[in-house]
Structure formats: C-alpha cells, structure tokens
Amino acid sequence: MKQTQTPRHNDSIEQCDFTELPPDFVYLNNGTEGSMPNCVISTYKKALKKWASNPTSSYELDPILGKRQKENRKKIAEFMDVQQNNICLTENTTMGLNMVLMGLNFLPGDRIVMTDHEHPAVISPLWILRQRSGVQIEVRSFPEPEQIRQMDSDQLLDYLLPNIPELINAKALCISHVYNTTGVRLPLDKLKRRVDELNISYLIVDGAQALGMLDLRKPENRLENCDFYAGPTHKWMNGPPGTGILYIKNLNLCPPEFYPVLSQKMGSYMSGDNPEACLPMTEALQVRGCSSIPAYAALIELMEFYKKKGDQALVENHIFKLSSDVSTFIESRAPNSLVSPSDTELRSGLITFFPFQWCQPENCFKDKETAEWVVRKLLKMGVQVRFVPFPTVDFSPECQLQRHNPHLPIDCSGEPVEQSYVIRVSTGYFNTLAQVETFKKVLKQVLISLDAN
Ligand SMILES: Cc1ncc(COP(=O)(O)O)c(C=O)c1O
Hints:
With about 450 residues, this protein is α/β, with parallel strands linked by helices. The chain folds into two domains: about 25-35 and about 310-450, Aspartate Aminotransferase, domain 1 (Alpha-Beta Complex), CATH 3.90.1150.10; about 40-310, Type I PLP-dependent aspartate aminotransferase-like (Major domain) (Aspartate Aminotransferase, domain 2), CATH 3.40.640. The protein has 13 helices and twelve strands. The chain has helices at about 40-55, 55-60, 70-80, 95-105, 120-135, 145-150, 155-160, 190-195, 280-285, 295-310, 310-335, 370-380, 435-450; strands spanning about 25, 85-90, 110-115, 135-140, 170-175, 200-205, 230, 245-250, 350-355, 385, 385-390, 420-425. The strands form three sheets. It has a seven-stranded mixed sheet, with helices on both faces. The relative contact order is 0.17. The protein binds pyridoxal-5'-phosphate (PLP). Pyridoxal-5'-phosphate binds near residues 119, 121, 209 and 232. The site of pyridoxal-5'-phosphate has 13 residues, from helix 4.
C-alpha cells in the first residue's frame, strides 16, 4: 500500500467570503449541499432583478440570460479545460445522468455495468431501462472497507472490473468518480484504459462528489477520459442550488446513437442529411424551456471567484489537508472504524467511518439508529455531518421492482435488506483547521456519551 503524502497547504485561502454561514456553525456536509460565497449571492440577485425587469428579452436575446447559454457554457468549459460544445448546463447531477441514460439508444439485451455503491440518481434510471427496454444490469460489488484499505487503485480496479465475459463488450459502465459512501476516488485515466480493454462502449461517470473538490487539470481527473460526466455545481463547488453540468465528449453525437430527451430540438437532427447543420448535442439539451438561468449567471461569478483565489490545485490541497486531518484522528483512535482509504490515489476529501465507543474503540456500530443518533447529537452541538448507507442497490432477479411493501422479505424499492451505515464528513473549501479541531472535540464528547448508552 502506498503511503499518504501530506498535500501542500496554502494558508492564504480565506474563509471570510462565506458569511451567510453562522460563524459558530461547523458545516461539514459539502457532499450534500455547499454554501455560496457572497459575490455569487449578489450576482444571483442582480441577474434575477435584470430578468424581472425585462423577462422576454432576457430569455430570447440576452447573451448571459438567453436560453442557449453559449457565453456561460464557454466560461464554464474554460474552467473545466474543455470546449464550449462539450458542456450543457443542467439543474443537477441527477438530471445530467438521466439525460444520458435515457438519451442513449439501449436495446433489449444490452448490458450495463454498475457497482453496488452507486447513487439512486443512477440506480433509478437503470431500473427504468431494465423494466422498459429489457437491458441487463451487471452489478459489481465493492470489497469490504478493510480490504479496500489494503489496496491501491490498480488492485481495486482489477477487483471491480476484471476481464470476465459478463463485462467484455458491455454497452456502458456507470461508475462514480468519488464514492459518497466510502470516499473512494477512482482515477479516470485508469478507468478509461480499463473500459477500452474490456471494449465497453460508453464510460458514464457520476461526478457528484468530485466536482469542486478535485483539480480537473490533473490527468486522473480530466473529463476527456469519460464519454459522459455529470456533476453538480451546488455541492463542493459552492454554486447556487439547482446548478450542474453535463459533459459530453463526442461533439458529433446525434440520433440514432443518442436522442436529445428533455430538449425542444429533436427537429434539428431531422432537417436534412448534413450533420454539420445540426446543433451540437449539448446545445440541443440546453434549449429545454426556461431553466435556472439567473443561477447560471451567478455560476460565472463563482468561476471568477475561484480564479482570483488561485488555481484548482490550491482548492484540492486545502480540502485534502482537512480531510486527512479527520481521517488521521479517526484512525489513531479506532482504526477498525475508518472506512475511507488512505492510499494517495484512492483517497478524497470525503471521509466516512462507523460510530465507535470512545473508551472501547474496537466496538463499532453499523446500524442506522446509532449513526442517526450520532449525527443528531453532533448537530445539537453545532456540527453538521450526515450518515449514509451502503451497499445501495440490489438488482438480483428476485428483487423485481414493485410498489414498496414492508411485509415482503426483500425491499423491492431496489435497496438491499442488509445495509451498513457510516458517518460522513465532507470538509469543504470554506472550512478551516480550527473547525476540524472543534469537530474532533465534539465527536469525542458524543462518542463518550455513546459509551454511556
Ligand atoms: C454520488 C451521488 N450521485 C448523485 C447525487 C445527486 O446529486 P444532485 O443533487 O446533484 O442530483 C448525489 C447526491 O448526494 C451523490 O452523492
């Protein structure tokens, strides 16, 4: 196993730009929702006022507020180091993933590979495809956390994506860049190589826990490794609610390979034989009626904000510095309860662990009630984290989707009957080392009172 390197930390990152967060509130849940810097809130307000003063002209003609969003897509694309026509602005990750999974022309019998730790944003459209189109879903199970902690990225990818008939020539792989359950980060360049070796047609990546946390300019994080990448700008990136991006690699993508669902522009692909005359797919998907346009204008301010603060590497280093502090704290007290890996290539800014008894740290708890109790107690003491379950999906033949029935032996909403629950800490851009210290102190108190219960 590789050793963890302490990332370079730049103390010049200022936290005073996020004054809407109360100063005594330790918010460590960027993985659910981010906050917003003040400049973004004021730009959002200005854009709303401009819209309200002249709605039709804003929507039809304004270069920033108009429906095609060319200017804003260009600026976001520059930030992500890709081209304007690779980017469609969406409301969130769920929307982007659904546009992709419902847009691709899957046929009965096509195989789609996923892992058992994917989010409902992937699971739900895959249930639809299985029920409606007869696609086959191949679920690959993650190893147990203690095994992952002994692995490097090659070993984990060998385990998840071996060279076996079930995976070879599959139509798509749906996978996460960073796992919301364990904090495992998968290097996209190695994933791409693996997908090519297995001759899988499309690499579809859920970037919900990665965008805004990671430096997209590093080879292992570059969007070009993926065919499709959906992510939020409302979580780690601290953009307005209801904002996200969908990256599409193939600039010439069109029907029948991919249909623009949730768009008004299918006609663009029916109007003649000249593919050059067609809209880029991202623009077709952008024109879908009125969406969160004032929020997109504020997103541009957000990109400027980060540019002024330094490069993306500084943001990643800051977040990793804080998360490794959390991880070291848990590991030094209760090594068995730590779920997140410490391998340099696999770790991320998201740390998860099982609740444990402070005085008998070998006793850890995997049930929902304990995790819920710890999160509630921490919140009462001014620290917000959350709990999450895993594994998250059961596509076994006996688990046919049907209306939820609590009397059935298996939960046919598609969730496994047995789930473990972890505490999840996401240390974001606006957090400080002092806040992590507070978290550690308060967690210790809560876990001592868990001893007493
Ligand atoms: C891994 C993962 N995918 C997708 C989502 C859904 O994100 P959004 O609210 O941007 O649709 C989440 C939300 O927490 C997530 O953690």
